[in-house]
Amino acid sequence: MARAVQLVFDQYRIQRNAFAQSMAEYAQKPEYVQQLIQQGAIVLLRNLLTDSSQAIQQNAAIAVGRLAGQDPKIAELMIKQDIIRILLYFNMDKTNVRFNN
User: In this structure, are residues 24 and 69 in contact, taking their beta carbons and an 8 Å threshold?
Assistant: First the structure.
């Protein structure tokens, strides 16, 4: 029984990571950028930036960076969505952990 529950959580983590990786791949292709924005990728990626998995956070950060690099208006939207603050906060938090140990 406990194994079945663990399997569900593992699948959930795998799918979140696959989503973040796919977003990072599509975000580097200009022909997909507007559709990603229209589908709400920024809000979804913002949530993944605070995921408990560091790999998912990193993939989401790559996707966000690639999207922001496509168009200054998208970068401005990222600022309005508070993504810069989230990136800085979580990055500083990890840096402090490394230096304090």
Answer: no
pTM of the model: 0.84
The full 3-state SS of the chain, as one line of letters, equals CHHHHHHHHHHHHHHHHHHHHHHHHHHCCHHHHHHHHHCCHHHHHHHHCCCCCHHHHHHHHHHHHHHHHHCHHHHHHHHHCCHHHHHHHHHHHHHHHHHHC
C-alpha closest to that of 77 among 36, 48, 23, 37: 37
**pLDDT tens digit sequence for 12-70:** 999 999 999 999 999 999 999 999 999 999 999 999 999 999 999 999 999 999 999 99
Q: 46-60: string of b/e by CB count within 10 Å (b at 16+)? A: bebbebeeeebbbbb
